[in-house]
């Protein structure tokens, strides 16, 4: 169906209905995304303050066949927040809907509006002596609505799940402008189809999330962090199983780090304090969150001892202070920044069945080295089977020299991932970057069902056109 | 759209395509359900052995506009498995697709066909030194496909989640006969709309689940079970919070028990060994699953001590042997049987925001006693906010005398649940029993979306017609 641009006449209709204050002049930042792979365009920028205003905007867009791009923190890495082609869209930014509407500590529930910054949601939980576990590098600027729309992951998925798993209910505006009042605080509610999970991960193509009921957790009484050297990815996987046998679900983080990442830090971020004199080929960052009365350093020490007796670790550092903890975390958290400074040929957010990861890493290395003299930084959320598998130019050369190689490298990596029954979109979403991948690797029956659902809920195709599904 | 019965001509078409062996004469048991509230009828019974046979059956049904009723263990309590009205359906029972296709202990994943009995799935996990935590009274006869189609709950939801939370991927036949090959073993996979969660809980109205990739967990090294007397439901809720502060996620069961349930046991199941001389008004069954090196009885003792100092418990029994554990569990698990023997006027599977439960229980008691001289047995999964709220005739009288009161009692209880922002369908599903409730209490925007999705995926309306959504 043909769409129309969000032009002056459309703006007048909105002003007449919703007042002058809901629209704003568009600025550059709504047209950019962190990796600068997409340049958006924009017809109109709206900053609604209530779900009713969001519904009003969507009703107008539906009536006028104007495309709508929901906008959170703008931190997405797959271009889901910028529309480059077709009629200039109405961008609906949630930045004025930032309230924490309620906290129910007894129920371990918090209700936040979609525009709330993730860090603020975490802080609000903290103030109620609770934990909201979603944690990722962009948490100072990403917004919870975007986290849900993309089913964000992060460093605590191992213990607490993805954004999807942390949501009990939603308030949302559907593509026809109807408001779904679904802010359930219930842990069990089987009343019909799971619209919540359908909107989560749909990246704004089936509606706009305006608020969410989120799950909180008890705050661990004590947190322990360590970095262990492991002889191989196999050993890392066995170490995780061993740790879980010993300390159960308290393992909240288990991140694999490759020497390449540590060398990148040395190269471009030399102020980052590294735990080992000589960067080990493989190491893991492990964190435990324990109940009262348990000692994290003793628990980590015990894990290390058992692992050492099985040859699963060769050296290790257990943080003895908050400062040491934060040093260890800095190693993991600043690797993406180092990656950006080095400049990748191609970056991949992939997941692989956990037991196949060692094979994948070996075959991937062979495959990439056959393509050229690249450096690979393979790191990430090993416990979830989610790797960030990034391919870089050789030392002394730059990504600009390899622009024409991005496509072939990406294709080769994604083909390998697919051959391993993996996913080419683990935690960042499909956005506009991976629309073709979804067509290529997706299950045909599922794609047919997705298209049918999209057509049923958004028959005019106004919601974030071009994201997830090819227009 | 008009549907046709699964008649002899239709049977011939199936035999010609799929052979003689896939069809069976229908027997009574496919027409019954445990509470005898629905009498089904049946045109044809099919017992497919492969997903391809299921797809063949659905393609024929789609072409001939014949209704299809997917059939698992037949243990559902809301009539989702029996179709009473309209043209006689094709019943597709999964009882010959019972294979455990694979177990991946390293990945904590098990792949089971839909017809696998829940207890067999649990046993297969056990054999791999893992836990599949879904556990409910019918586990000896219910099948995993039905558990997923209804998003079953049970006694371990508090720690491990509903059936939905325990599933990573599905293989399913969609209403057009296409096979969705979605048996992902991945923990993170954001490749398009969440078809998995859409089929889970759809009660066979959007397709037939034929196999599932299920999450496994480490087996707790030691399990501790106790029953504590609590002065009130408020105290029970505070006790749960206290226990979680002390022992974190290891609290796997937290069941509220009312004196009425214990008195029913005394009345009709006197062989059940009860832990307290005088049945307390309120008590809780609590279970911890701990890692190696922790003592369950010490942990429970510590919880009891702290709780006692805050006035949250007044007496308690901590199981000191496997026999004592099983005695405590028997008290909880045989209450439903006692309920059946007594015979309820009306039973309700409800959930309430946890902090509102004490108020709900008080107002519910007032409301029910205003309706008549009923006895209430209110018990269940307090940690999930899920109560089984069952209303019984006074001592010495029988449900048969109150048949005409079932409707008004149910309506009054459900109205109250709705006023408390609760759900009238917590863990048993909607089936055919609660179709009207869904229309009455459901969010209109969500209902519209559900109807649009149903029409999009099943335009001929062949899949389990009359369940979940009114035809």
From TrEMBL, chains A, B:
FAD-binding PCMH-type domain segment(s):
38-219
Q: Which domain of life is it from?
A: Bacteria
What InterPro entries does its record include?
A: FAD-bd_oxidored_4_C, FAD-bd_PCMH, FAD-bd_PCMH-like_sf, FAD-bd_PCMH_sub1, FAD-bd_PCMH_sub2, FAD-linked_Oxase-like_C, FAD-oxidored/transferase_4, Oxid_FAD_bind_N
* Keywords attached to this entry: FAD, Flavoprotein
Q: Which family does it belong to?
A: Belongs to the FAD-binding oxidoreductase/transferase type 4 family.
Protein name per its UniProtKB record: FAD-binding oxidoreductase
């Amino acid at each position: 169906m043909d769409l129309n641009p969000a032009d002056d006449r459309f703006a007048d209709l909105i002003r007449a209905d919703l007042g002058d204050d809901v629209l704003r002049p568009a600025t550059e930042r709504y047209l950019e995304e962190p990796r600068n792979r997409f340049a958006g365009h924009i017809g109109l920028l709206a900053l609604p303050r209530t779900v009713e205003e969001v519904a009003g905007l969507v009703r107008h867009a539906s009536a006028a066949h104007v495309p709508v791009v929901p906008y959170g923190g703008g931190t997405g890495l797959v271009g889901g927040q910028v529309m480059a082609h077709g009629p200039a869209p109405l961008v609906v930014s949630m930045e004025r809907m930032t309230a924490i509407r309620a906290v129910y500590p007894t129920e371990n529930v918090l209700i936040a509006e979609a525009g709330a910054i993730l860090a603020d949601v975490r802080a609000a939980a903290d103030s109620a002596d609770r934990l909201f576990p979603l944690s990722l590098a962009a948490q100072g600027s990403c917004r919870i609505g975007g986290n849900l729309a993309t089913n964000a992951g992060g460093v605590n998925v191992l213990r607490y799940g993805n954004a999807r798993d942390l949501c009990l209910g939603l308030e949302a505006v559907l593509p026809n402008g109807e408001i779904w009042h679904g802010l359930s605080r219930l842990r069990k509610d089987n009343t019909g189809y799971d619209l919540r999970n359908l909107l989560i991960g749909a990246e704004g193509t089936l509606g706009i999330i305006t608020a969410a009921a989120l799950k909180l957790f008890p705050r661990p009484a004590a947190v322990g962090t360590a970095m262990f050297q492991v002889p191989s990815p196999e050993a890392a996987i066995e170490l995780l199983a061993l740790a879980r046998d010993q300390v159960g679900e308290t393992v909240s983080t288990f991140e694999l780090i490759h020497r390449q990442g540590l060398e990148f830090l040395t190269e471009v971020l030399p102020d980052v304090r590294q735990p080992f004199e000589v960067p080990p080929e493989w190491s893991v960052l492990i964190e435990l969150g324990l109940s009262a009365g348990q000692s994290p350093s003793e628990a980590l020490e015990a894990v290390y001892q058992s692992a050492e007796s099985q040859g699963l670790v060769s050296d290790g550092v257990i943080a003895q202070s908050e400062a040491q903890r934060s040093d260890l975390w800095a190693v993991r958290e600043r690797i993406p920044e180092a990656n950006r400074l080095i400049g990748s040929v191609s970056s991949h957010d992939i997941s692989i069945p956990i037991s196949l990861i060692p094979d994948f890493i070996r075959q991937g290395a062979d495959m990439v080295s056959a393509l050229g003299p690249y450096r690979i930084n393979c790191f990430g959320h090993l416990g979830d089977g989610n790797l960030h598998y990034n391919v870089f130019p050789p030392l002394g050369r730059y990504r600009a020299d390899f622009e024409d190689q991005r496509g072939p490298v990406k294709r080769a990596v994604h083909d390998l991932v697919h051959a391993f029954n993996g996913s080419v979109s683990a935690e960042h979403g499909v956005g506009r970057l991976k629309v073709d991948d979804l067509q290529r690797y997706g299950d045909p029956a599922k794609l047919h069902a997705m298209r049918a659902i999209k057509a049923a809920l958004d028959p005019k195709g106004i919601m974030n056109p071009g994201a997830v599904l090819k227009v």
